[in-house]
Design goal:
- The chain is of the alpha/beta class and 470 residues long.
- The chain folds into four domains: 165 residues, P-loop containing nucleotide triphosphate hydrolases (Rossmann fold); 80 residues, Helicase, Ruva Protein, domain 3; 90 residues, Zinc Finger, Delta Prime, domain 3; 74 residues, post-AAA+ oligomerization domain-like.
- It is 47% helix and 7% strand.
- The chain contains 19 helices and eight strands.
- The strands form two sheets. The chain has a six-stranded mixed beta sheet. Strands 7-8 form a two-stranded parallel sheet.
- The protein is extended.
- The relative contact order is 0.07.
């Protein structure tokens, strides 16, 4: 347990040893990058910070989206005593001690307590239950940060007494803004380094929407690129490392020449090759095209290669999941109906557990679709039907199929002569369903591949019965 008292004038030596991501933590909500949906005027977080409103919230989102950052911002500006617990090493005894102290301070001094619990999903039911009275009676205002779905990892009574705020992965522009700020801010690299465009692109891809990761990698790349050096005086070679301190008169010598961080420096620091992949250019479209055609061509190895390239290039996994779901129906369809179930389950896994774990679910769906028997009959069927409608081949709904439930429908003949399929053997009856103009159209044409062979045989028997009665 830690009771935090911030001292902005603290040890400069200690500050210099802090990671870049820690030094660059926002001091106000206005400095927070991303999460615009949570930071607007009148939002719960604004009220908690600016109005010191009593409330309890859960911050749920992937790593590096700013959960701890937001809690830190609140702690810096709140009028309350701020206490932080980590669910990794805190027990029931620690929770109860915080609650008891919060009650004592409120009763004796009127001092309210803000309790922040990081990794709150690691608390077991007993530990979470220990928080209930404090949250319900507002002995503490509670902030819980979690990377796991609270509906699965948090007890319902505690969740129902708190607001659930969902944080989103930072988008590409957000990560670039973080990196740019860290390069120039005096708390960060203070202008001692510049970054090539290729290096910036590589950092953004590697970050994968994780702001903390982007700053960690930037700091590592800065170390690899070497120290900045002062320009040599009077044309002499050499120079001192880093920016020199001011002299007795307060005059600071000429600023060091900034070192340039290249993509090669990032590669060496992170041990990840820079994948040349422009998410808005040719590479994006070429790779996704090859990915789709490899699945369609039943080559799981090639499909997995392109999947890995997209992963490493920082492609949005939700985009990948959407393409897999589409092609489960477009390229497999009724030849293996379970392919769509697998694809949808993989897409749901991306939302539920996120990357990098969801890479496994996406890979399973890719392998399933690649190995499944292929049929494009579904897309051909629906596109043929749409083409007829667009061409004006519509026709009137047959009278016996029209709605006969409203008053006056019987006088118009609506519903008369309709034959309910449930009343006939096999649930199939001879009857016209299509408009007269389309009575002989056959949109769905099954192939003989996989399960669709069986569906084709069934369809032919059904058509023989249904259309045989005309």
């Amino acid at each position: 347990m830690s009771e935090t008292l911030f001292d902005d004038a603290g040890s400069e030596a200690a500050k210099g040893q802090e990671p870049l991501a820690v030094r660059m933590r926002p001091r106000t909500l206005d400095e927070v990058v991303g999460q615009r949906h949570l930071l607007g005027t009148g939002s719960p977080l604004r009220r908690l910070v600016e109005d010191d409103a009593p409330m309890s919230v859960f911050l749920w989102g992937p790593p590096g989206t700013g959960k701890t950052t937001l809690a830190t911002v609140v702690s810096r500006v709140t009028k309350r005593r701020f206490v932080e617990l980590s669910a990794v090493n805190a027990g029931v005894k620690d929770v109860r001690a915080v609650v008891d102290e919060a009650r004592r301070r409120m009763g004796m001094h009127g001092t309210r307590t803000l309790l922040f619990v990081d990794e709150v999903h690691r608390f077991n039911k007993t530990q979470q239950d220990a928080l209930l009275p404090a949250v319900e009676n507002r002995w503490v205002s509670f902030i819980g940060a979690t990377t796991e779905n609270p509906f699965f990892s948090v007890v319902s009574p505690l969740l129902s007494r708190s607001l659930l705020l969902t944080l989103e992965s930072l988008d590409e522009d957000d990560v670039r803004a973080l990196i740019a700020r860290a390069l120039t801010d005096e708390r960060g690299l203070d202008g001692r380094y510049t970054l090539t465009e290729e290096a910036a692109d590589h950092l953004v891809r590697l970050a994968g929407g994780d702001g903390r990761r982007s700053l960690t990698y930037l700091e590592a790349a800065a170390l690899v690129s070497g120290p900045t050096r002062l320009p040599p005086p009077d044309g002499e070679a050499g120079g001192e490392e880093g920016p020199a301190p001011a002299d007795a008169s307060g005059t600071r010598p000429a600023r060091a020449e900034p070192a340039t961080i290249t993509a090669e420096h990032v590669e060496r620091a992170v041990d990840r090759h820079a994948v040349r992949y422009d998410r808005s250019g040719d590479q994006h479209y070429d790779v996704i095209s090859a990915f789709i055609k490899s699945m369609r061509g039943s080559d799981p190895d090639a499909a997995l290669h392109y999947l890995a390239r997209m992963f490493e290039a920082g492609e949005d996994p939700r985009f990948i999941a959407r393409r897999i779901v589409v092609h489960a129906s477009e390229d497999v369809g009724m030849a293996d109906p379970t392919a769509l179930q697998t694809a949808v389950a993989a897409a749901q896994a991306v939302q539920l557990i996120g990357m990098p774990e969801a890479r496994i679910n996406l890979a399973q769906a890719v392998i399933h679709i690649s190995l499944a028997p292929k049929s494009n009959s579904v897309i051909s069927a629906v596109d043929s039907a749409i083409a007829d409608v667009r061409a004006g081949r519509i026709g009137q709904v047959p009278g016996h199929l029209r709605d006969g439930h409203y008053k006056g429908a019987a006088e118009l003949g609506h519903g008369q002569g309709y034959r309910n399929a449930h009343d006939f053997p096999g649930g199939v009856v001879a009857q016209q369903y299509a408009p007269d103009e389309l009575v002989d159209r056959e949109y769905y044409r099954p192939t003989a591949h996989g399960a669709e062979r069986r569906f084709g045989e069934v369809l032919q028997r059904i058509r023989d019965v249904v259309r045989g009665g005309r």
